[in-house]
Protein: Helicase Helix-turn-helix domain-containing protein
Amino acid sequence: MDEFILSLFMANDKLKKTTLYQILVGKHTTSVLSYAYFYDLLPFFSVLPTLDEAEFYRKLEELINQGWLKEEQQQLSLVKKESGTSLLQIPTFQSLNFFKFGRKEEVCWRSVRFLLQAASFLGKETTYVPLENAPIYTERVRTIIHQYKGDLPSRLYQEVTEIFQNLSKEHADLLAQTLSGYQQEGEAFFQLAPDKYGAFPWPSLYKSAAIHHFLAQVTRHSEQLLYKFLLPLLLQNYNQSMLQTRKLIQQGSSIDEVMQQRKLKRGTIQDHLIEWALADSEFPFTNFLSPKTQKKLKQLPMNSFTYPFKELEETFDATFLEIRLYQIWRKKATLC
Structure:
């Protein structure tokens, strides 16, 4: 656990300890999500949803007493910066993205495993022990089998092969060994994790990194069967109310019209827009930022996300929403 916590500080000079805890357990507010994004911690949003707050603070105190961290006005910073590496700089864990995939990673991978198992037995045997028996899995797989019939095995083989070829060898080997099918029994993740990842929370992170890598590849191919099969589950990773707002905006409604239709406050709609901007690489920033506003906000300091909003609003004559969207837009541009 110590190594994991320290790895979160490698890319940042200071982190607010209360907000860091809220990120790790997944407190779903726009301020926490934005903080996570600007401090490069969004991939760890809700990574440890059951983390005990008192225990977390005790662990931080131990790291402070051991000389790894120092605390100044509720801000924590790394003392021994040469001692480690940011987790997302380690190839094995670069694919971690709990914000995008964490909530439904387990049900997504179990659905894929069951679909592949069922497809592998088509035309061979009708009697076998299914990996799943809950309707959430069986009904959806039954629908796919009925829709694609005899073409299903070949289509899945082609798509899965392509995806595995785009994964790292480590992730591809790990996931492949968990698959079950005709004349093949898969192993459990805990049986496959290397000894060096044996202590909490590393086994879970090791598994999640591979699954997230797989799901990221699936989302790049909206025309494929696997994407269509997993899409309803992938969408459940997001705030469902935000998705409703997004749909109305995409259909041409203004913010005021969405407020009226959904009977929500302006602040709530603004929160939805900010979360949408954080989640979507194709968010339409120019729909909410006029050329005049963009020109003014180009003068924002690069670390303007650390400034009080009241000060920024007065200085740049822009709204909270405009400033926050521009900050996100600019950071996205630097990451491209």
Summary: The chain has a mean pLDDT of 93. The chain has 18 helices and three strands. The longest strand covers residues 69-72. The two ends are 32 Å apart (CA to CA).
